[in-house]
Amino acid sequence: MRILISLLFIGCSLFIQAQPKKEIRATWLTTLGGMDWPSKKANSPQSIEAQKNELRHQLDELKAAHFNTVLFQTRLRGDVIYPSAFETFAECLTGHTGKNPGYDPLQFAVEECHKRGLELHAWLVCIPIGNQRQVGLLGKNCVTRKQPKLCKQFQGSWYLDPGNPGTAEYLSQIAKEIVSHYDVDGIHLDYIRYPEQGEKFPDQDTYRKYGKRQDLKQWRRNNITHIVRRIYTEVKKLKPWVKVSSSPIGKFNDTRRYSSFGWNAYSTVYQDAQKWLDEGIQDALFPMMYFQGNHFYPFALDWLENKNERWVVPGLGIYFLHPKEQDWKLDEIIRQIYFTRKIGLEGQAYFRNKFLLDNTKGILDELKNNFYVYPAVVPPMTWAKSEIPAAPSSPSLSLQENGIRMSWKASTSLPGGIYYRVYASDTYPVDTEKAQNLIVTRTDSCQYTFIGSLSEKGGIYWAVTTVDRYGHESVPLALNMPQKTEPSILYGKYPSVPQGYTLIISDVTGLEILRTTDPEKDIPKNIGKGFFRFSLMAPDGSITPAGVTIY
């Protein structure tokens, strides 16, 4: 295996050429203790806005880095970040457990993510309720007080008891509440397992009552699987397009050749996660593969071989890059990203968002400059039954003073709604399978104005597609087609001026601004920002169009 992995990494510097259009690029955004967000507390109109702006800024950075999925911590430790009928507001929002922050953070996060083409998956920490301090702060609002029969104290903290049938009911009610009231793209289950040293979990009474003489270990695995199945089923009844995923321990079990050294999902904490894939009660897994070397690669292959046509997106432990953690070298994460792409897994997820946006060891720069050069979209849920959406119609495209304006007639709406993707290319027809042609990953509007710059390039030809909530995409609608007189779009450049010719520059309305035979010298001094038309005047006085540009 070591030789195989070494061979795979020969020529690793060539990974930049692999830029898939369909790839999950996710980050865990932790709200517990405000570790990723919020650092500012919401206790006044001004501080509410500051808290919102902090999240907006983080989402802007994720969009700029071509991420497409935010795993947004929504249930923390027996508390939540939205107004719930089951649990109270988390301390992180205001600095006070149970205090209303004056707005709905989950609703705000969903809206802001969708504006930027990002999916939001509500991340629920399932079994832990909290340590003594957290449970004390929750007081009468804590599930330990409201439903004490569901709860067990273990090693100084409180947990829901997976063996009590009421636990599946309780967690599914929270999931249903979120899916019913919010336009989330997914429900993401974390800590859907027994605690560390789970063999000592104090569930003897529950086992006597519900175990029915099953093997204790298998009974515990069945309990966790029952909770996963219940949540998946209830979510799909409400909104079948909402993705249900989880983050199991990164090593499923010992493999034939590699040991998990006593830390795995199946035997240690009773997560039969590969069974969940086989049964089809998870759309995706984000295994927490926070390991190096042969603690990573063989187990990634094991997930690949057992994913049953669902998605496996390895979670990468970028927090270990930090000098105060394990001070990993950046090369470790680079090799893991390259490997996950090479073997055909569906993407990467990063724990956690602060270490990503802080550019720890240069990880964000590496992604932007090499791995995530172009946008990517979440793949379609090919196992879900849905119609391929119809393409939009009635295309329109025109040059405006401030950009290129395009519009189309809406496609037929489908359950869950639809949105649109916009593409551009210098060749016709626009190839909508190429990541470099993807300009807008999501817009809910039927119009779009492209305001170009040297860092944000479009193309001569444009197209739009319809996308349903399962990720299925229509055939493209061409927004413009080749014309014999159509000018080239030059993006901050100008055409070459043959000897004896004069370059004429006009604004978008046709008003002449400048004539020059030395554009390199004259254009910077005389031309501001905007759209401009070029024409070339020959020595005989004849004039031919030579393109348009965006400065």
Question: Which keywords apply here?
Answer:
551 residues; 25 strands; disordered N terminus; 9-stranded parallel β-sheet; elongated; alpha/beta; 16 helices; 28% helix
Number of helices: 16
Secondary structure: helix percent: 25-40%
Mean pLDDT: 92
- Spatial order of the strands in the main sheet? 12-11-10-9-5-2-1-14-13
Write down the Rg.
Answer: 27 Å
Q: How far do the termini sit from each other?
A: 53 Å
What structural class is derived from the secondary structure elements? Answer: alpha/beta
User: Low-confidence parts lasting 5 or more residues at pLDDT below 50?
Assistant: 1-15
Q: Kindly state the number of beta strands.
A: 25
* Main sheet overview: 9 strands, parallel
Classify the beta-strand content into a percent band.
15-25%
Approximate shape: elongated
Task: Describe the model.
The chain has 16 helices and 25 strands. It is α/β, with parallel strands linked by helices and 551 residues long. The strands form 6 sheets. It has a 9-stranded parallel sheet. The chain is elongated and about 100 Å long. The relative contact order is 0.09.
Compact summary:
The chain has 551 residues and is of the alpha/beta class.
Secondary structure elements and pairings:
Blueprint: H1 2-8, E1 24-29, H2 45-64, E2 69-75, E3 79-80, E4 88-89, H3 91-94, H4 105-115, E5 119-125, E6 128-131, H5 132-138, H6 143-146, E7 151-154, E8 157-160, H7 165-181, E9 186-190, H8 204-210, H9 216-238, E10 243-246, H10 265-268, H11 273-279, E11 284-285, H12 297-305, E12 311-312, E13 315-316, H13 330-343, E14 347-350, H14 353-357, H15 363-371, E15 393-400, E16 403-409, E17 418-425, E18 438-443, E19 447-450, E20 461-468, E21 477-478, E22 502-507, E23 512-516, H16 519-526, E24 531-537, E25 543-550
Parallel strand pairs: 1-2, 1-14, 2-5, 3-4, 5-9, 9-10, 10-11, 11-12, 13-14
Antiparallel strand pairs: 6-8, 7-8, 15-16, 16-19, 17-18, 17-20, 20-21, 22-23, 22-24, 24-25
Helix pairs in contact: 2-4, 7-9, 12-13
